[in-house]
Amino acid sequence: MADQFVERWRSPVRRVLTADLGDEPAVLAAFAETAGDPDHPPVGLVVFAGGASSGLDDGLVAARDRVWSITTVVRAVVGTWHGRSPRLWLITGGGLAVHDGEPGAPQRHP
What we know:
Layout: H1 2-9, H2 24-35, E1 44-49, H3 56-80, E2 87-92
Parallel strand pairs: 1-2
Helix pairs in contact: 2-3
């Protein structure tokens, strides 16, 4: 999903940099590169978080790890950017459906 987004969003007027959320130095370097051009400040950060887990315990560990990784992104913004803060979008897959007919992966227990 992230690669498709990058391919469709990148253009001559939109700069798109990517980094693996699990690689903290890469995330910090990507934001530093983005923030290094004061004429073209970052306007948004898109974080793709998701993935299937094999059970509740694995899901909780994966969720904890994702939250920790996302805080890296937030720390990069708070610690290095002094202009108008860019928006942060969190994109997830396989979320819970709220209403019947919505896409998602609800787990119903009898």
